Automatic annotation (TrEMBL):
<feature type="domain" description="ABC transmembrane type-1">
    <location>
        <begin position="74"/>
        <end position="264"/>
    </location>
</feature>
<keyword id="KW-0812">Transmembrane</keyword>
<keyword id="KW-1003">Cell membrane</keyword>
<dbReference type="InterPro" id="IPR000515">
    <property type="entry name" value="MetI-like"/>
</dbReference>
<feature type="transmembrane region" description="Helical">
    <location>
        <begin position="184"/>
        <end position="209"/>
    </location>
</feature>
<feature type="transmembrane region" description="Helical">
    <location>
        <begin position="111"/>
        <end position="136"/>
    </location>
</feature>
<dbReference type="Pfam" id="PF00528">
    <property type="entry name" value="BPD_transp_1"/>
</dbReference>
<feature type="transmembrane region" description="Helical">
    <location>
        <begin position="73"/>
        <end position="99"/>
    </location>
</feature>
<feature type="transmembrane region" description="Helical">
    <location>
        <begin position="243"/>
        <end position="263"/>
    </location>
</feature>
<feature type="transmembrane region" description="Helical">
    <location>
        <begin position="21"/>
        <end position="41"/>
    </location>
</feature>
<keyword id="KW-1133">Transmembrane helix</keyword>
<feature type="transmembrane region" description="Helical">
    <location>
        <begin position="142"/>
        <end position="163"/>
    </location>
</feature>
<protein>
    <submittedName>
        <fullName>Carbohydrate ABC transporter permease</fullName>
    </submittedName>
</protein>
<dbReference type="InterPro" id="IPR035906">
    <property type="entry name" value="MetI-like_sf"/>
</dbReference>
<comment type="similarity">
    <text>Belongs to the binding-protein-dependent transport system permease family.</text>
</comment>
<keyword id="KW-0472">Membrane</keyword>
<keyword id="KW-0813">Transport</keyword>
C-alpha cells in the first residue's frame, strides 16, 4: 500500500519538477541571451541626431565602416588570433606529449611550475613582458601580441592528460617499425589528440579574439590595433559617439567568434566528454 502511495506522490510531483526545470532554463536563457538581443535591437534602431527619433535600419553598420578601418582591424585580429591559436595547439601538444611520455630529471617540478603560472594574473607579468618585447625591438607590432601568447599552461596540462590516457603500445609498435620520436609523435599520437587540440584552439580563439588589455598595452599605432581596441574609437571624444554605431561594431565583431563556435562545437563537445565513459 505504501508503495502505491509513493508512486502516486511521485506521479503528482513529476509535472511540478518538470515545470521548475523549464522555468530555470528560461531564466538562464533570458539572462544569457538578453544582453545580446538588446545589443542587436539597439544597433538596428539608431537615433537621429537632429530629431532624436529612432528609426529601424542598418545605418549604424554603415557608420562603422566610415569611422574606422574595419577591415584592417578584422585582418589584424584574424592574424593575431589565428597564429596564437595555432601556436598554442602546437606548443601544448608538444609539451604535453613530453610530460606524458618521457622521464627526465625535474619533470614533476617543472610541470608544477608551469601549472603555478596559471595562478599569476596577467596584470602582474605585463610590465616585465613589455620590457622584454621592447628589448627585442618588437614594441608596437603584432608580434608583440603573438609571441608572448604562444605558451599555454592550461593547454599543456590538458594535452598531457590526453596523452597519458593513450596506450603506450601504439608508440612501441611504431618504434619497432623504425619510426623515430618525431614520427611517432606526428603520425601516431598527434592525430589521436584532435579532440584535445580542438578545445585548446577554440578556447584560445575566443579569448584572444576578444582580448583588450594586452593590445592596449603593447600597441600604439592604429594600424596595429585589433578589433576590440579599434572599436573603442567609435565612442568618439569623451564617449560622444553614437551608441548604436558602437553596438553595431560589437555585433560585427561577434560574427567570427559565432562562426568558430558553430563549426567547432562538435569537436569541442567530443573533447570535453572524451574519457567520461572510461
Amino acid at each position: 500500500m505504501s508503495t502505491e502511495l509513493t508512486a502516486r506522490r511521485r506521479a503528482r510531483l513529476q509535472p511540478l519538477g518538470t515545470a521548475a526545470k523549464y522555468v530555470l532554463l528560461i531564466v538562464a536563457a533570458a539572462l544569457t541571451l538578453g544582453p545580446v538581443i538588446w545589443t542587436v535591437i539597439a544597433s538596428l534602431t539608431p537615433k537621429d541626431a537632429a530629431t532624436g527619433a529612432t528609426e529601424f535600419g542598418f545605418s549604424a553598420y554603415a557608420d562603422v565602416f566610415t569611422k574606422v578601418d574595419f577591415w584592417l582591424l578584422v585582418w589584424n585580429s584574424v592574424l593575431v588570433t589565428g597564429l596564437v591559436a595555432g601556436g598554442q595547439m602546437l606548443s601544448a601538444a608538444m609539451a604535453g606529449y613530453v610530460f606524458a611520455r618521457y622521464e627526465f630529471r625535474g619533470k614533476n617540478l617543472t610541470f608544477g611550475v608551469i601549472l603555478a603560472t596559471m595562478m599569476v594574473p596577467m596584470q602582474v607579468t605585463i610590465v616585465p613582458v613589455f620590457m622584454l618585447i621592447r628589448g627585442m625591438g618588437l614594441a608596437d607590432t603584432l608580434l608583440a601580441l603573438i609571441i608572448p601568447a604562444l605558451p599555454t599552461a592550461f593547454g599543456t596540462f590538458l594535452m598531457r592528460q590526453y596523452f597519458m590516457g593513450m596506450p603506450t603500445e601504439l608508440g612501441e609498435a611504431a618504434e619497432i617499425d623504425g619510426a623515430g620520436p618525431w614520427r611517432v609523435f606526428f603520425s601516431v599520437y598527434l592525430p589521436l589528440s584532435t579532440p584535445g587540440l580542438a578545445i585548446v584552439g577554440i578556447l584560445a580563439f575566443n579569448y584572444h579574439w576578444n582580448e583588450f588589455f594586452r593590445p592596449l598595452i603593447m600597441t600604439i599605432s592604429e594600424q596595429n590595433f585589433t578589433l576590440p581596441l579599434g572599436l573603442v574609437t567609435l565612442q568618439g571624444n569623451l564617449g560622444t559617439g553614437s551608441v548604436s554605431t558602437v553596438l553595431a561594431g560589437v555585433v560585427l565583431s561577434m560574427i567570427p567568434a559565432l562562426i568558430v563556435f558553430i563549426f567547432g562545437q562538435r569537436p569541442l563537445r567530443e573533447g570535453l566528454t572524451a574519457g567520461s565513459g572510461k
